[in-house]
Amino acid sequence: MKRGQHHGALKPVLVGAGLGLLDSEGVEAVTIRAVARQAGVSHAAPVNHFPDRRALLTAIATHCFEELKRAIANTEFRRLPTARERIFALIDAFYAYGLAKPNRYRLMWRQDLLDAADPAIKGLTDDVFDLVARSLESFEDSPRISAMSRIVAVCSAIHGYVLLRIDGNFDSYVDERTGQPRYHAIVEALLP
User: Fold this and answer.
1) Which residues are bridge partners to 125 per DSSP?
2) Predicted TM-score (pTM) of this structure
3) Which residue intervals of the chain are DSSP H helices?
4) Given phi > 0 = left and psi -120 to 50 = alpha, else beta, which region is 26?
5) How far apart are CA 43 and CA 56, in angstroms?
6) Is 29 in the same domain as 117?
């Protein structure tokens, strides 16, 4: 878009420019000035939508969480007949999103860079957490740990594994006993 052609649609243009920078150069490259330059507007134009970098990054991360929620919905995991199938469809979406869009995935969890109190991002993170929690509800209770600890364990296992894969620490292998993808097997180990 050329200067002056945004006509009130500047915010999504700035978020799109930020996503482009994030994807190509990483979070360090996403500044208000760089995003304005990428969007073809003056460096002062974004201030009406984003008073600081944290607000800009929060809007970009919100967009990423919306993408992840759509990816989860596209698995139609709620229609799957068993709790095990539902949780694996859910973690497949996390895994695929993280590996396909590594810089976006990393930003989504950077509480040091985001405004966690922002209602939009808070609602989306709560929604994603609730999806995991509801997917694990139908598993029987464990006498060893609480249901919440199991939820946190599953979230931690898949998130940690995705980050380790993104960073090149693990290759894509299958479990030697079950033949499952490794990330399925580590979650399977946490289920009754």
Assistant:
1) none
2) 0.91
3) 10-25, 32-39, 53-74, 83-100, 102-108, 119-136, 147-166, 182-188
4) left
5) 13
6) no
Which CATH number belongs to the domain containing residue 38 in this structure? 1.10.10
Q: How confident is the model at residue 192 (pLDDT cuts 50, 70, 90)?
A: confident
Token look-up 């289920």 returns: 191
Domain at 137, CATH number: 1.10.357.10
Between the CA of residue 183 and those of 123, 153, 168, what are the distances in Å? 27, 13, 15
Burial class (CB in 10 A: 0-12, 13-18, 19+), 192: exposed
Q: How many whole angstroms separate alpha carbon 3 and alpha carbon 45?
A: 10
Read off the pLDDT of residues 35-59 as tens digits, 9 standing for 90 and up. 999 999 998 999 989 999 999 999 9
**Residue owning tokens 């060893």:** 144
Phi-psi region of 76 (alpha: psi -120 to 50; beta: other; left: phi over 0): left
Give me the domain span that covers residue 105.
52-188
d(CA 134, CA 137): 5
Q: Which residues pair with 181 in a beta bridge?
A: 174
